[in-house]
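If you are new to this repository, start here. Below is one unmodified record pulled from the training split, so you can see the exact layout before writing a loader.
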Amino acid sequence: MEAAQWRAEWLGWNGNALRWRIAGDLAGLPATELTLDGVAFARFAADAAGEREFEFEFPWSPSGHDELRFGLAVTGAEPALDLLPGWEVRLGLPAALPVASTPTPVRGLAALAGTPRLPAAALAELPGVSVIVPIYNSPQSVQSCIASVLRHSPNARLILIDDASTDARIAPILDDAAKHRQVHVHRNERNRGYTGSVNIGMRLAGGDDVVLLNSDTEVGPRWLAALKIAAYGSDDIGTVTAVSDNAGAFSVPELERHCPIPARWTLAQAQRAVLQQAGTRYPQLPTGNGFCMYVKRVLLARIGPMDEAAFPQGYGEENDFCQRGERAGYRNIIAGNVLVHHERSASFGDERRAALGVQGMAVLRERYPGYEDEVGATLWSFERRVLDWRVRRIYAEGDTTYAKQPPKPRLLLAADPQDAGTAKLLATLSRNQECFLLRNDGDRVGLYRLEGATFHAQDSVELGHDAAALARVETRLREWLVGYAVESVHARGSAASDRWLATIAAEFDIPTL
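And here is the target side for that same chain:
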């Protein structure tokens, strides 16, 4: 296969929309992909026409930078087959057709426009959260799931619903889990099915928000806080679903595929990479997915529990629930910065899962005739393409973000770098953590990232002498804590400044060391 078989050319860039043309024997041309920074962003199927023009709009930058470098390649070609040379443009600025030039180095990902979106109140002031895990057999998966939740969300209430498991190994696992103060175990006297078990858990949760979590999942660092932050970014958000390595439409970076995390990383490291780099422009879908779905209590109070009669064994119950939520004015979003491992079908098996899916879809088609078309349209939204592209780039061997070290937990240190103890403390902390420094630069407060022995400026905010100025500093600090995915803070200052930083960090369940 050679690029000479087809003629391709860039047609124009008006500042937000890219146009190009492909001519030749398109019937023999495999799918093509528009690349950004050398990583596939959007794929296009071939057709039999002798010539075809394409146009793709970029309302905002997927990388967070105004500079964009496009390419056009044949999908999956080995070796790689480029149809056009790269074209570097700038967002918002029309460009003439490209000329030969030396490409500029690709920069690391930056925050997406309009993010982060923060809750209006501290997480502790919002409803509590109960994690509901319905269980039926699969003891090894159940044990791994419980251990991961306890490890990465030690203060969350965990409600385990044993749906009359027939495997004798389940009972001792749940007995052991029940020794933890925040764990509640409920055993169904008879098999109630997935939906019935979930509804029991929702009742046991009282006034809490709930997270529905399959027993064949494992979670990672900051998963629950990140879901809650996403849920309370707007009053009209009803559900938030995580992304996964194996969850159909919620798989990243490739839809409907099993997408194993990079072999060089553990699940915790992969979750940290996604938490730090995937961004928080949460895509919206007509549904969530019960493998890991955050549900706000206000939505439950408004529309009631899941439909146990129509979906007794699951597979369609969360779709119906989310459609009812939409009709009540609530949105369903995807938290692309929360990666949850999912075995899938550990309890049901592939054959039974497929049969249940067919039954559930029949009910959904009858109740919501436009549902499938709406899903198809939103699966390929710009926000979703950006999420997949960022994860695809994070996972790629060519991405340099984690070339020197795997993803580490991020720590924010507030200190005077001239303090004799700061350098020694940073040297110790940076062995196992990625360190950021918050310091007073006179008329500004600056945020710096430590790399080796060098501080790299990330952002700053102007200081002032009135309440409004202090509010601006606090707002920016909140944005940094969430936007940079800080997992802990440490302060070396006055007792007052230490308490001030600890109080702001606590708003997002970030501990102070």
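Two things worth knowing about this chain: The domain at 410-506 is CATH 3.30.420 (Nucleotidyltransferase; domain 5). The mean pLDDT is 91.
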